[in-house]
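Customer escalation, tier 2.

The customer says the design service returned an amino acid string that "doesn't look like it belongs to this structure." They asked us to rerun it and document both sides in this ticket. The original C-alpha cells are below, unchanged.
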C-alpha cells in the first residue's frame, strides 16, 4: 500500500489507493486509519464529491521516520537512508 501511495504522487484518496493496490476498500480504510493514527500518513486536501461524503486525500509525512537500505557485498558495504517521501537524507558516500 505504501508503494501505491508513492506512485500516486503527493497524495491519494482511499479509492485511488485501492484501485492501484488491488486491496479492498475495507482493508485500505483500515490500513489508512492505522497509518494516520500512527503519524505515518497525514490528512491532506478534502475534495468535493458528486454525491455522498467529500473525499479526504492522505499524504505521507516525510518526517515520520527513515528508511534504510544496505547493500552488503564481499568487498564493500553501502548504506543509504531516505525519509518517507523517498528523498535521500544523507548523500551517498
Amino acid at each position: 500500500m505504501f508503494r501505491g501511495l508513492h506512485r500516486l504522487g503527493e497524495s491519494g484518496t482511499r479509492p485511488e489507493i485501492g484501485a492501484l493496490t488491488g486491496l479492498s476498500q475495507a482493508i485500505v480504510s483500515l490500513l489508512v486509519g492505522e497509518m494516520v493514527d500512527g503519524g505515518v500518513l497525514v490528512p491532506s486536501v478534502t475534495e468535493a464529491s458528486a454525491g455522498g461524503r467529500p473525499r479526504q486525500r492522505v499524504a505521507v509525512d516525510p518526517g515520520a521516520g527513515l528508511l534504510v537500505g544496505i547493500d552488503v557485498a564481499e568487498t564493500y558495504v553501502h548504506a543509504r537512508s531516505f525519509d518517507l517521501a523517498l528523498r535521500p537524507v544523507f548523500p551517498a558516500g
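Tier 2 assessment: The sequence is consistent with the input. The two ends are 30 Å apart (CA to CA). The chain has a mean pLDDT of 87. Sent an explanation to the customer and offered a walkthrough call.
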